[in-house]
Design goal:
By secondary structure, the protein is α+β, with helices and mostly antiparallel strands. It folds into three domains: about 120 residues, Toll/interleukin-1 receptor homology (TIR) domain (Rossmann fold), CATH 3.40.50.10140; about 60 residues; about 150 residues, Jelly Rolls (Sandwich). It contains ten helices and 15 strands. The strands form two sheets. Strands 6, 7, 8, 9, 10, 11, 12, 13, 14 and 15 form a ten-stranded antiparallel β-sheet that branches.
Length: about 400
């Protein structure tokens, strides 16, 4: 039997088990795991709804609030499809659509032997399928996600102040949600490039994107730098954009800036998960090649203008974890002058990280020489292994407290 499974995208982890169990019962399950939105995505959903033998609704609070799920169920009902609600998470049954509330659901929250028997029994007790209506009902229009709506707004050739303010508020809210933060950031960066961007909106964008310091941050003078260097510390939590190689914005392989660094170590920005938790943002990974040489090393770094920090006490922090580090790994900091490199260098030589370690915060404090014009910092891995890093912080001691740079 061909089964169409309707579910909220946030419930994918729960739905995976149901899909596996339905497959073990020799049913073919369709759900949109390989599709990414837009008209082609919706067209595939409509076609699968028309050709399925059974519509299974994965009942969760998120699914009941999902506009695509509501549209899918409505169209399945218009097509006269058989419907089987499967309860994956406790819901307020008063919120169920009236036709759906009248159908006996299968309680699959425990996903145990009893639940599997009840599911199989419900599938075997389904009434015969009805032929499709002729002509077919008009399918619902493609639902636009908040991100898609914002993207369409940005396509407009001109936006007034009220329109820009409303769009900024929407994107700011999406940027604060873990599951939409990455896409919202890309749209905020696109917003920043508009020719008609008003000064007040531009200032708000700068604050959100962290391009300029907040009111409590250490002031940074305007300077011009050549890439890959940056004007000020950038993308320290690795939640910013990535390039086509999935490398984090503002960070780069140290080849050419650290003598002897290998270009064979891979650098990736990827989602950070701990104990199956989601919504922890992104982190950076530095990984050795399979045929790494014993004394070969790789490094991920950022280089920023730092004349305004010359002579001051600074503090570099980062969260780091490691796996199978045979030689050593660590965080590093180097201060350069315009004509004199390596004025100061610290690579945690007294506290190298080895083996496999969980996330821990590491700190380097240093008094910068008065000739400092550049700061270089990052992580290093010598020999085989893997290092993950996240949530770098660069602080300066001022007025008896640490302030963010």
């Amino acid at each position: 039997m061909k089964i169409f499974l309707s579910y909220a995208s946030k419930d994918r982890a729960m739905v995976t088990g149901l899909v596996e169990d339905l497959g073990l019962l020799d049913h073919e399950v369709w759900f949109d795991q390989d599709l990414s939105g837009g008209h082609r995505w919706w067209d595939a959903i409509i076609q699968s709804l028309q050709t399925c033998d059974l519509f299974v609704f994965a009942l969760t609070p998120q699914a009941l609030e999902s506009v695509p799920c509501q549209l899918e169920y409505g169209y399945a009902s218009d097509l006269g499809k058989r419907v089987l609600p499967v309860l994956l998470e406790t819901v307020n049954t008063a919120l169920l659509p009236t036709p759906l509330a009248q159908i006996q659901y299968v309680d699959y929250r425990a996903r145990d032997h009893k639940a599997a028997l009840l599911l199989n029994r419900a599938l075997n007790a389904l009434p015969p399928a009805e032929p499709l209506p002729d002509p077919l009902p008009v399918p619902p229009a493609v639902p636009l996600s908040p991100l898609a709506e914002a993207n369409l707004r940005l396509d407009q050739p001109a936006l007034g102040f009220d329109e820009q303010a409303a769009l900024l508020l929407k994107l700011k809210n999406l940027f604060q949600q873990p599951d939409t933060k990455q896409d919202a950031l890309a749209l905020l960066m696109r917003f920043k490039q508009r020719q008609d961007l008003l000064a007040r909106i531009d200032s708000e964008l700068d604050t959100i994107l962290g391009i300029f310091p907040s009111h409590d941050a250490f002031p940074v003078p305007a300077v011009t730098v050549e890439p890959p260097a940056v004007v000020r510390p950038l993308n320290l939590d690795f939640d910013g954009p990535v390039n086509e190689r999935r490398e984090p914005n503002g960070w780069f392989n140290s080849l050419g800036h650290v003598y002897g660094a290998s270009a064979r170590y891979t650098i990736r920005a990827l989602r950070r998960t701990e104990g199956g938790q989601e919504g922890l943002g992104m982190c950076a990974r530095l990984q050795s090649p399979a045929d790494v040489q014993p004394d070969e090393f790789g490094s991920l770094m950022q280089r920023c203008a730092a004349a305004f920090l010359a002579g001051q006490l600074i503090r570099l922090e980062a969260e780091i974890r490691t796996e199978d580090v045979a030689k050593w790994a660590g965080m590093w900091l180097r201060a350069d002058g315009d004509d004199v490199p390596n004025l100061l260098f610290d690579n945690m030589s007294q506290k190298h990280i080895t083996g496999t370690t969980d996330w821990s915060t590491y700190v380097i404090e240093a008094q910068l020489p008065s000739q400092t014009t550049w700061l270089n910092y990052g992580i290093v891995l010598v020999g085989p292994g893997t290092v993950w890093a996240d949530n770098f912080k660069l602080l300066v001691w001022q007025n008896n407290r640490w302030r963010g740079v």
